[in-house]
Structures are given as C-alpha cells and as structure tokens.
Design goal:
The strands form two sheets. Strands 1, 2, 3, 5, 6, 9, 10 and 11 form an eight-stranded mixed sheet that branches. Strands 4-7-8 form a three-stranded antiparallel sheet, with no helix packed on it. About 5% of the residues lie in helices and about 35% in strands. The chain is mainly beta.
C-alpha cells in the first residue's frame, strides 16, 4: 500500500516524514504521514525527561528529539489505553537532543498513532516518540504485523515483531 499524499488536515502538525515498510526486499507500505519530531522540539514540558532522572538529572522537563540513526524496534502496548505500537531499543536509551543539550539521551521512545488535533504544548501527543497519522496507522500496524486483529501478542514468540527504524533527516538540511 503506497500513500504518497501528505496529510495537511492537522493544523501546526509535523507530519511530512516518510515511513516505508520493507518486507523480504519489497516495499509493502509507504506514507508521507509520519513525524520524527515531538510536539515541541527543543521545548519544555513537566512530564518530559529521561526515566532515570538520577542518572540524567539534566533532562528533567526537557522534550527530546531522537537523533538520526538506525534503531531496533519490537511490539509494545502504548499509552493509557494500551493500544498496539512499537518501542525503539526496547524502550531503552537512544541518542537524542533536548533544549540546551545537543548530546543527551531519551528512553521510552515509541512509534505510535499520532493525533488528529494540532500539536499541543499543554497536552502533547508526543514528548519524544515517532508518530504515524491516524488515517495511516491501522494499515501501518497491520502490514508491519504488530497490530494483527487490533492487538499485540506481546511475549508470544510466534507473533514477535522485530525490525529496524531508520531516522534520516539529511533531506531537510
């Protein structure tokens, strides 16, 4: 499934990144409706910061943006409603930038459904995660395989989803 029209229905949103799913050497899904940026890149939010603030106290309140690179992913249940998503590096440490911190870390980074509302500094949909526009999310999850039938089969090796995500912002420079 190839979706080449970028969504412009979300005011002030950061959709426009490309997501491509390749299986067995074939492109199975492509969309221009993804984002590698949080709602407020380089900004501040009371809930932002590394999970282990004892190790990374300088990250408290600072929103992270994952740095370019290749990262492993696997399935996870995301958010308060526990819907199917992916986690990067098993929700562990990844290189990131934050306000005033060009070389720091982020953790708990997921690839999840984005918002149909505009970006919000009060109630953000992403504090460091990668997001897929809601119109494309179900197809993305089904093709990647982490949301077959709308559920994640976490812990069951038969359904374990593993892969890699590449973040490359070179075309933006």
């Amino acid at each position: 499934m190839i979706k080449m029209e970028a969504k412009r229905t979300v005011p002030n949103a950061r959709y426009g990144a490309m997501v491509i799913v390749v299986k067995d050497g074939r492109i199975e899904f492509m969309s221009l409706n993804a984002s590698t940026l949080p709602d407020d890149p380089g900004g501040y939010h009371k809930d932002a910061g590394a999970t282990n603030l004892k190790l990374y106290p300088e990250t408290k309140g600072k929103v992270a943006t994952v740095k370019e690179g290749v990262y492993y992913f696997n399935e996870v249940l995301h958010g308060r409603t526990k819907y199917p998503a992916l986690q990067i590096n098993n929700s562990g440490i990844v290189p990131a930038t934050r306000a005033g911190l060009p070389d720091t870390v982020a953790d708990g980074v997921h690839i999840h459904r984005g918002s149909i509302k505009s970006d919000s500094l009060v109630s953000p949909t992403s504090l460091s995660c990668l997001t897929i526009h809601p119109d494309d999310y179900a197809d993305f999850g089904d093709i990647v395989g982490f949301a077959k039938g709308g559920r994640v089969n976490a812990g069951d090796p038969k359904y374990a989803i593993k892969g890699r995500v590449v973040i490359d912002r070179s075309f933006m420079k």
